From TrEMBL:
Keyword Transmembrane helix: no
Domain D-isomer specific 2-hydroxyacid dehydrogenase NAD-binding: 124-302
InterPro entries: D-isomer_2-hydroxyacid_DH, D-isomer_2_OHA_DH_cat_dom, D-isomer_DH_CS, D-isomer_DH_CS1, D-isomer_DH_NAD-bd, NAD(P)-bd_dom_sf
Record CDD domains: Mand_dh_like
GO terms of molecular function: glyoxylate reductase (NADPH) activity; hydroxypyruvate reductase [NAD(P)H] activity; NAD binding
Keyword Transmembrane helix part of the UniProt annotation: no
Record family assignment: Belongs to the D-isomer specific 2-hydroxyacid dehydrogenase family.
Residues annotated as transmembrane: none
Organism of origin: Kluyveromyces dobzhanskii CBS 2104
Name of the protein: WGS project CCBQ000000000 data, contig MAT
Length: 349
């Protein structure tokens, strides 16, 4: 009996052993990193290519360079045999769920394993922005210390005490952030989700409307996924409703913020500082944004740790094994959770 074919898009950094184990029950087909979207789509329809016999695809965030978006065109071109796409990441905005749903192809992500590493990054950026640490670091590198006085002339920052943190998106990452911030002495935590959470998930946070969150927060902590409803959620109008001198921190997805509106607000002082791990058109970041000393920015490093990357890669393999043995992925994305057709999914072996 032939093994199920698993097509792997993207590189494996730390989970080689997990993939070696998977190879015992599946035919693993790595896709050459030089492949283009046009070539990949062609291989999907080439009966001589093992890709045309794929039953499960795994993908990484950088593999979008090989395939482009997982959109309607790509979903249509995938072999009839494909039953699941296992994505390595919590955010899956590179995938359009609808056309895959229509084809009865499951989509999985890695939802919980990123929480701690992302929350650690968020707290670093939040405290750095609140205290103007990046401003001082740049001035020191420019040789302005001690010639420009205390802290090399950086503006005086603020302590957490007495400040209100507004958490936009109190999911797993949002709750992990709140737990880490509590010891710093913030006055209170408020949050906004599409609907209020049960008290046991609120972590002591107060539920407010979106406009109330904007109006009350000294720090706006962004932790929502990117989709058609959340793109540019933080735009010029939303920023106008915030306190003067607000601090904005984003480790979710760049396009949740209208970047041009943020740049204008950072220049005017309406937004005093920002902590950013993600950008609207990354890896391209506007020079205008990079030049601002009141931005603490890192190049999408939220889960850039050996331990987290390895756990994520290994969980992708677990999702694949689950499809092979049970017919179902372990972590179906929310958009597909209630679909009846998934109940009829059969093991591949």
């Amino acid at each position: 009996m032939s093994k199920p074919v698993v097509v792997r898009l993207g590189q494996v950094k730390y989970a080689q052993k997990a993939w070696e184990e998977l190879a015992k029950i599946a035919q693993v087909v790595p896709v050459d990193p030089s492949v283009t979207r046009a070539q990949f789509l062609s291989l999907c329809e080439d009966p001589e290519s093992p890709i045309s016999k794929a039953e499960v695809l795994t993908r990484t965030f950088p593999s979008v360079q090989n395939t482009g978006r997982f959109d309607a065109e790509l979903a249509k071109k995938l072999p009839e045999s494909v039953v699941a796409v296992c994505h390595n990441g919590a955010g899956y905005d590179q995938i359009d769920p609808s056309p895959f749903n229509q084809r009865h192809i499951q989509i999985s992500n890695v939802p919980e394993l990123v929480n701690n590493s992302t929350a650690d990054t968020h707290v670093f950026l939040l405290l750095g922005a609140l205290r103007n640490f990046e401003y001082g670091r740049r001035l020191m590198i420019e040789g302005k210390w001690p010639s420009s006085g205390a802290a090399a002339g950086a503006p005086v920052g603020n302590d957490p005490e007495g400040k209100v943190v507004g958490v936009l998106g109190l999911g797993g990452i949002g709750r992990a952030i709140v737990e880490r911030l509590k010891p710093f002495g913030f006055k209170k935590f408020i949050y906004h989700n599409r609907s209020r959470l049960s008290p046991d998930l609120e972590n002591g946070c107060e539920y407010v409307s979106f406009d109330e969150l904007l109006a009350q927060s000294d720090v706006v902590s962004i932790n929502i996924p990117l989709n058609s409803a959340t793109k540019h959620k933080i735009n010029e109008a939303a920023i106008e409703k915030m306190k003067d001198g607000v601090v904005i921190v984003n480790t979710a997805r760049g396009a949740v913020i209208d970047e041009s509106a943020l740049i204008s607000a950072l220049k005017s002082g309406k937004v005093r500082a920002a902590g950013l791990d993600v950008y609207e058109h990354e890896p391209q970041v506007p020079q205008e944004l990079l030049d601002l000393p009141n931005v603490v920015g890192v190049p999408h490093m939220g889960t850039h740790s050996v331990e987290t990357i390895q756990k994520m890669e290994e969980f992708v393999v677990e999702n694949v094994k689950s499809v092979i043995k049970s017919g179902k992925v372990l972590s179906i994305i929310p958009e597909l959770k209630k679909e009846e057709w998934i109940k009829d999914s059969k093991p591949l072996v």
